[in-house]
Design brief:
heterodimer, A: 81 residues, alpha+beta, Mth169, Chain: A, three-stranded antiparallel sheet, 3 strands, B: 230 residues, Rossmann fold, two-stranded antiparallel sheet, 5 helices
């Protein structure tokens, strides 16, 4: 079994009102010095067997069509043993 | 022949009945389409209604774009079939790349529900031809993720080609770039709008009947293009 993490985040130029709301809460909770908060999401895919190049290519395809919207979001893919 | 206008119901659609009623009040015949349908039942136009298709899971409209009926709809859109996406339907159209840009969380984070004043900016699309450019209308708006965003080049292109069909007046209710409430594709057959024209078609239930103009415009366009006889 392998795990593949797909991390999706809004592109830097897209306003993230949720991240901004979290940042406001951090200040109220006494954590100072936080310059910015951006909220993203993570998909954890548990894969039977090994993740070969073909499987990884398929995951990249799914990440760019279903898991993220390339108009407003960027993604990264990490394979964890 | 009465024009046949399909209204697609996805699991979680809310405003499909209202959209069908608006079609009928405008003089069309509404045809119920189901997300799992393999074809469009030879309709003359399609409305993608508001609501929360697939519970808004993942992103609004993201899962709807992979519904079986959508494959046929994308082909039909590219062939010139008039399509109106309202609210969640607009989100489905951007997720499907039939319209540029995306709809994001309202900048103030609150769900908003109000009667919203708009200015019609384009009366050459299939769904706005019965309006005057500059006409002000009042129709309901209700969304949590209605902020229209696109990169500056895309926004400039939309403005330059006259593809902004309506703008928010007096207040910008959700942080949409350049106060954009609705847009069309280059051909003018696909229109997405965040406020709800189908909720403003009868005096009893709507703030106005201004929304009816979208549906009567469609019928006029179908007659003009010879798709149906007058």
């Amino acid at each position: 079994m392998a795990r593949v993490l797909v991390n999706v985040a809004l592109k830097p130029e897209i306003l993230d009102p949720q991240g901004r709301a979290v940042m406001g809460a951090l200040g109220r909770l006494g954590l100072s010095g936080v310059a910015d908060v951006r909220q993203g999401k993570q998909f954890v895919l548990t894969i039977d067997g090994d993740v070969d190049d073909e499987k990884l290519a398929q995951i990249h395809e799914i990440a760019s069509t279903l898991l993220s919207n390339p108009v407003i979001e960027d993604f990264t893919v990490e394979v964890r043993p | 022949m009465t024009p046949r206008v399909g209204v697609i119901t996805f699991p979680g659609s809310l405003d499909d009945k209202d959209a069908a009623r608006a079609v009928q009040l405008a003089g069309g015949e509404s045809v119920s389409l189901w997300h799992a349908d393999a074809d469009l039942h030879s309709v003359d136009a399609v409305v993608l209604p508001g609501g929360f298709s697939y519970g808004d899971y993942l992103r609004c409209g993201a899962i709807a774009k992979f519904a079986p009926v959508m494959e046929k709809l994308v082909d039909a859109a590219n062939g010139g079939l008039p399509i109106l996406g309202i609210c969640n339907g607009f989100q489905v159209l951007t997720e499907s790349y039939l319209l540029p840009g995306a709809l994001t969380r309202n900048d103030h984070l609150h769900f908003i529900c109000r009667d919203q004043k708009l200015r019609i900016e384009n009366n050459s699309s299939a769904w706005t031809s019965n309006f005057e450019v500059g006409q002000e209308i009042l129709i309901p708006l209700k969304n949590g993720e209605g902020g229209y965003v696109a990169d500056e080049n895309t926004l400039d292109e939309l403005e330059g080609e006259g593809r902004v069909i309506a703008r928010y007046l007096e207040i910008n209710p959700n942080g949409s770039r350049r106060d954009i409430a609705g847009i069309t594709n280059a051909r003018g057959n696909v229109v997405g709008i965040m406020p709800h024209p189908e909720h403003a078609v009868e005096k009893l239930t709507g703030p106005t009947t201004d929304g009816l103009g979208f549906f009567t415009s469609l019928l006029s366009s179908l007659v003009k293009t010879g798709k149906v006889s007058a």
